[in-house]
Amino acid sequence: MSATTAPAASGAPFAPSPELAASIDAVRADVAKLHAQLTRYGLVVWTGGNISGRVPGADLFVIKPSGVDYDDLAAENMILCDLDGAVIPGTPGSDRSPSSDTAAHAYVYRNMPDVGGVVHTHSPYAVAWAARGESIPCVTTAMADEFGGEVPIGPFAIIGDDSIGRGIVETLKGHRSRAVLMKNHGPFTIGKNARDAVKAAVMVEDVARTVFLTRQLGEPQPIPAEAIDSLFNRYQNVYGQDPTGSLN
Ligand SMILES: O=C(CO)[C@@H](O)[C@H](O)COP(=O)(O)O
């Protein structure tokens, strides 16, 4: 257990250190603001979709409330949860129900310690591949850059319990892709933080669309495995500015 000890389970009032409180506030602000990217890129309609971000150094994450208009999402109504997905009582936003996918996000954070952000959308082209139950083959350099290969299909899973989380982890552990298409549902993406997972959500929709378009013209041409490796390594390690910069 790290800086916090499962306050939701212990019943003790949640009393973070000033440093942890500042860190939670920063994640709240970040997660709330990032939801605007989902509407900006046309990845969601109405109140669908959700973003969460892990609180660095604590067994906590922040996720959006369920079924609230995107225009009303703000730092103070984001919901703080422990890694079992339980809402931390008495914290801002805790009077509302968290996202219906909270258990899935929590499962990912518990089982993939390097993941700092999780995103789910119903972006239309990615959902079309998910409804087909088909992985997106790696046939463009942009896909090799971003995902290092195909975007895999995950199992069909029921919403609300651990099933979606288990499907995400089983599919993505040991895989280069930061996106999985959950069968008959849609894309879930992971990243080193919430912004990185949002980027993967934007990119998976873009590749789902371009490979769909390719299919209308004929059979997509594969990229040799060595070229995929080389493109992935260059993009992940050399592209853009310093890794701590803002262009990656
Ligand atoms: O598809 C699902 C459920 O998996 C969600 O994306 C809902 O469409 C939005 O749920 P909330 O995050 O608002 O509960």
What's the pLDDT, averaged over the residues?
A: 94
Contiguous runs where pLDDT drops below 50 for at least 5 residues = 1-5
How many helical elements?
8
CATH superfamily: Class II aldolase/adducin N-terminal domain
Distance between the termini: 31 Å
Biggest sheet descriptor: 7 strands, mixed
Oligomer: single chain
Number of distinct beta strands: 7
Instruction: Supply Rg.
Output: 18 Å
> Which structural class do the helices and strands define?
alpha+beta
Spell out the helices and strands N to C: HHEEEHEHHEHEEHH
Q: Beta fraction of the residues? A: 5-15%
- Which CATH top level class fits? Alpha Beta
Bound molecules: 5-O-phosphono-D-xylulose
Strand order of the largest sheet: 3-2-1-4-7-6-5
Q: Can you tell me the CATH topology?
A: L-fuculose-1-phosphate Aldolase
Shape: globular
The proportion of residues forming helix, as a percent range, comes to 40-55%
Keywords: Metal-binding, Zinc
EC number: 5.1.3.4
Cofactor: Zn(2+)
Protein name: L-ribulose-5-phosphate 4-epimerase
